[in-house]
Design goal:
The protein is α+β, with helices and mostly antiparallel strands. 20% of the residues lie in helices and 35% in strands. The strands form 4 sheets. Strands 1, 2, 3, 4, 7, 10, 11, 12, 13 and 14 form a 10-stranded mixed beta sheet that branches. A 4-stranded mixed beta sheet has the order 15-16-17-18. The longest helix is centred in the first third of the chain and has 12 residues. The chain is globular. 38% of the residues are buried.
């Protein structure tokens, strides 16, 4: 049997973040698998799953930047979406089977605005039954696919913006009157936009589901810095892919504390440093005088301690 020689291997990417503009039809896991090949390392992860039908910002961490992903996942997120009122589906989006169709022609733009306002602010949201939330150790969507009835508990989320841009009449595949609503939402981590579409329709008495979803921002990362997989794959094989450095990734996610050489040295050994006046209560990125990320810092017991150390002693 003839042995096939392996193809050329791209140089390993530096530790950092790549913001990918996820294409429709790809799972977030698909993107990570592709990025492992492009970055020539298996140490790749993502911050916040996007459904296959969705497109837009998927923050991918490479190397030591995967340690930042836990924090990036918790950032607020912005989406543009289209909601179809008058049709309810099994998945609360266009990929599910139609459960019910209701004439939505009597719903006015004022009704839609009022419904969106009712879903703005701090709310209790029941996640979609086909979500990745675990129920007794198994993903909810797996239980649904196995034929089980899954009821998830409501949980607190925050919808800081629910802007309605356009409300237009459409016809469903069977000719029933429906409405398509274009919106922009800004939501806290853990909010399901599919559930917002479902609840908007339910509140208006006609049902609803999501027909299009594009994530335009995760925390400090927007579409302006996102790159397509095609563009990343088009780089010469002898060039590593570009990344947002660890320090710049931290700056996009956390408040920054500029460290003195003595502070940087102490933190690199896992030691604590002094508190500074008017320091934010949140996690802070400690950056040394050479612009390198030394550690993520948290104030505890009157001192500042490293939560994660990136710069070795």
């Amino acid at each position: 049997m003839t042995r096939t020689e392996p193809g050329p291997r791209r140089p390993t990417a530096a530790d950092g973040v790549v913001v990918v503009d996820k294409p429709a039809g790809w799972t977030s896991h698909d993107v990570v698998a592709r990025m492992r090949r492009l970055a020539s390392t298996r140490k790749v992860g993502h911050a916040g799953t996007l459904d296959p039908m969705a497109t837009g910002v998927l923050v991918v961490g490479i190397g030591r930047a995967t340690r930042l992903l836990t924090y990036i996942v918790g950032a607020d997120k912005e989406y543009t979406a289209t909601i179809r009122l008058g049709v309810t589906t099994t998945t609360d989006d266009a990929e599910g089977e139609v459960l019910a169709t209701v004439d939505a022609s009597g719903v006015t733009s004022a009704d839609v605005l009022a419904g969106a306002a009712a879903l703005t602010g701090a709310i209790q949201q029941v996640p979609s039954a086909v979500s990745a939330i675990k129920v007794d150790g198994q993903r909810a969507y797996a239980r649904v696919r196995a034929g089980e009835d899954v009821e998830l508990a409501a949980r607190p989320v925050t919808v800081s913006r629910f802007d309605v841009h356009d409300v237009r009449p459409v016809r469903t595949d069977d000719g029933s009157p429906a409405l398509d609503v274009d919106v922009t939402v800004v939501v806290s981590s853990g909010t399901y936009v599919r559930a917002l579409a479902r609840d908007l329709g339910a509140g208006l008495g006609v049902g609803g589901h999501l027909t299009a979803l594009r994530r335009t921002r995760v925390g400090g990362y927007g579409l302006d810095v996102a790159r397509s997989l095609d563009d990343l794959g088009a780089l010469a094989m002898d060039e590593p892919i570009d990344v947002v450095s660890l320090a710049d990734s931290a700056r996009a996610t956390f408040p920054v504390r500029d460290l003195t050489p003595d502070e940087a040295r102490a933190l690199s050994y896992g030691q604590s440093i002094g508190v500074v006046e008017d320091a934010p209560a949140a996690t802070v990125a400690g950056i040394d005088q050479d612009g390198r990320l030394v550690a993520l810092l948290e104030e505890r017991g009157g001192t500042v301690r490293p939560a994660l150390v990136f710069s070795p002693a």
